[in-house]
Amino acid sequence: MRVLLVCLASLLVCLKTADSHSLPQKDYETDSSKHYITNPLNDTSGNNSSSVPDTTTFIVRYVTTVDKKEYKGIYAHKNGKVKKILEGGRAVSVWPSKSRAYLAHKDGIYVYDSETEKLEKYGNLSDSIIGIVKENRTDDLYILTEDHVVYKVIEEGTKKIKVNEAEHAEQIALDWDDNLYYIGANNQPYVVASDGAKKIEGLPAYSTSAVISRAPIKIEHGAWFMSGQQPYVIYPNATSEPFVFSDQEKLEYEKRNRDLQVIFLQMRNQTEK
Ligand SMILES: *[C@@H]1O[C@H](CO)[C@@H](O)[C@H](O)[C@H]1NC(C)=O
Ligand SMILES: *[C@@H]1O[C@H](CO)[C@@H](O)[C@H](O)[C@H]1NC(C)=O
Ligand SMILES: *[C@@H]1O[C@H](CO)[C@@H](O)[C@H](O)[C@H]1NC(C)=O
Ligand SMILES: *[C@@H]1O[C@H](CO)[C@@H](O)[C@H](O)[C@H]1NC(C)=O
Ligand SMILES: *[C@@H]1O[C@H](CO)[C@@H](O)[C@H](O)[C@H]1NC(C)=O
Ligand SMILES: *[C@@H]1O[C@H](CO)[C@@H](O)[C@H](O)[C@H]1NC(C)=O
Ligand SMILES: *[C@@H]1O[C@H](CO)[C@@H](O)[C@H](O)[C@H]1NC(C)=O
């Protein structure tokens, strides 16, 4: 069982705009129906992942109006079939080597097993959640609630601890070493350190869009940050560097885009009758 994670926002736009050096960006203007897919560049499974049968790709669908996101649900794509698994689902944290995915909803956390295709409520929290990430080394999670507060969720989803260092977070992400990053109200990323949150240096002061996520697996340390169409690796010591694709990575990236386009067509075909 392998899981393909995607971190491309709004694929339809990205397919039109992606050139060999760039990654897609969020675009709220050209198409009101948006999708957020989870997927690293060269994730975990390596090998032509999305064409491998049995791989599950999760798609979070939402529609944006002027300044509001309306969540349509989380879909799972497997073996060419698309299934809506959680109505109103808002975010998903997928684990490469495991079949369990954690899903965020307005009434708490759900867990989906992509082998058995079963969905269950996870723990007993009832927060309205818009972001969720799981640690690499433990089963603990971090959640971002609709009111922009970050909590660490421990003890199988029965206890939460507020992360006071993260102020008004818009998005959250972890790196492979379980350092926590977030994007603040100013669209800039921060890393949460033991002595407080630190702003990541070396990034453009303004960007039309900012996205953070776990980095592709070959980047062992640091998280992934997209400013507009430029990817960066951001480090726990609050530094950053632009990421430059090699020729091989460009080919892989383009292939992944093509695979994702197929997944999208299948999703549209199967869900928009
Ligand atoms: C890659 O694919 C080949 C052939 O399908 C398979 O033998 C191999 O185990 C795969 N490698 C990984 C890392 O999945
Ligand atoms: C992966 O895809 C590329 C191009 O589509 C192909 O050349 C290569 O043989 C594939 N690798 C495996 C292991 O299937
Ligand atoms: C969740 O369950 C735990 C352990 O059973 C309990 O201590 C806690 O109060 C519960 N929390 C909520 C929000 O119900
Ligand atoms: C995840 O954690 C394990 C266990 O500590 C570690 O060995 C591994 O390197 C981590 N994964 C990555 C991709 O860094
Ligand atoms: C910060 O960490 C990165 C990655 O580990 C390293 O390359 C860089 O030299 C460090 N910078 C400072 C100022 O410590
Ligand atoms: C992707 O992963 C495969 C298998 O781990 C590796 O051989 C390949 O070089 C990686 N490509 C990139 C761009 O990291
Ligand atoms: C759409 O679905 C129909 C049957 O439901 C199928 O015949 C057709 O090939 C599909 N088209 C695409 C582009 O997947």
From TrEMBL:
<protein>
    <submittedName>
        <fullName>Uncharacterized protein LOC114250293</fullName>
    </submittedName>
</protein>
<feature type="signal peptide">
    <location>
        <begin position="1"/>
        <end position="20"/>
    </location>
</feature>
<keyword id="KW-0732">Signal</keyword>
